[in-house]
Amino acid sequence: MEKKVLKLYCDGCGEQNKNNIVHTIMYFLSIHQCPIKEIIITFPVQGHSFLPADRVFGRLEKLFWEKTTMITKKEYYELFKAVGNSLDTERHQKYLYTSKED
């Protein structure tokens, strides 16, 4: 089975309890056999709610509420395409998790 990269964006600082749960799950995935080779977690910069990326999430959330069900990946991709994208990688703090095998 081909190993994949999992990219996550957490809204909030790394010390918040909600992110501790995410970190615990990522650690569990990294030490056990699973098809994920790398886990990359990105925390937006302080004040990110004024960045274009937050406006994209706002538009996505509005579209999600209009849908009663979404079953296929294609449905999600269509919504993502409808709102566009915005990513300023220079202004984001990234954490890289790798599997034990590396």
From TrEMBL:
Q: What is this protein's name? A: DUF7869 domain-containing protein
Q: What is the lineage of its organism?
A: Eukaryota, Metazoa, Ecdysozoa, Arthropoda, Hexapoda
Tell me the domain of life.
Eukaryota
Where does this protein come from, organism-wise? Psylliodes chrysocephalus
> Which InterPro entries does the UniProt entry name for this protein?
DUF7869
Pfam families, per the entry? DUF7869
* Annotated DUF7869 domain residues: 4-86
